[in-house]
Amino acid sequence: MIVCKFGGSSLSCRESIERVAEIVRSNDARRFVVVSAMGRASPKEEKITDLLIKAYNGDEIAREEVRFRHEKLCRELSLPSITDELDRIDEAFKKGCGFDYFVSRGEYLMAKIISGLLGMPFIDGTEIAAFSDEGRWLIKETFVKATENLKKYDCGVIAGFYGEDGFGRVRLFDRGGSDISGAVAAYALDADLYENWTDVSGFLMADPRIVDDPAPIRHLTYGELRELSYIGAQVLHEGTIFPVREKNIPLNIRNTNEPEHPGTT
Ligand code: ADP
Ligand code: ASP
Ligand code: MG
Questions:
Q1: Whose CB among 97, 183, 186, 211 lies 3.0–4.6 Å from 3's, allowing a Cys bridge?
Q2: How far is the CA of 233 from the centre of ligand 2 (A)?
Q3: Does any ligand 2 atom lie closer than 6 A to the CB of residue 37?
Q4: What are the DSSP calls for 82-123, one per residue?
């Protein structure tokens, strides 16, 4: 069984989301899908997570754009309207919900959308990750919680990037943390493989935004990957390595725009 995580760069518009659906459907082993919030379809756009942060700080235009982009996406994918969900989020905001809850709604909404599109159950991030009441990620508790909760499912779409604390309040990982949610799911489900789908064909020799056309790296050890992530190669959050290394689960970084490319294992 494969756990596959799709980052915001793979979930930015109808076309990219249709490619994601095709990738998932093309292999029956891909039974658990972990998603980030919607990314940017063009350099002019902002990531939904960034818009939610602005909206929480009072930017009305950002709040409208979050609504507009999700409603448009559902129309384009011929999915039922998501307006009720957006209304509930606005309602929670008016009642003074926490920052983490509000910002996590990007992943929540995307998991709802992809679950509708694939016809798989929605699995909330709060079922996967445990945090202390101060908001610190608790690794051991997370492993226990995720293993217990995921037993109930045969397949599903998991909202990445957040979990809950002892009071049942939503808590966020750091930015880029959906990679960790995916690794936790792979650990809890004893997956044969963790696929991390993004917009580059694996780990490259250099950051492609700085160096033109860097060569891909076919294989890396967990240790090398952790070190590269730690020193700032953005492609993967450094917290991703520990859960998969614990169970020796291979990690494959792949490109949604070039699914035939083997990427980095
Ligand atoms: P996602 O939305 O899928 O989580 P991210 O933006 O977090 O994607 O990570 C992918 C990006 O990481 C690439 O688009 C690339 O610009 C950047 N990046 C930085 N360093 C590297 C590297 N060494 N190899 C590949 N990508 C890199
Ligand atoms: N959406 C969150 C972010 O932009 C988490 C993630 O993408 O992994 O940081
Ligand atoms: Mg990322």
A1: 186
A2: 15
A3: yes
A4: -HHHHHHHHHHHHTT--HHHHHHHHHHHHHHHHHHHHT--EE
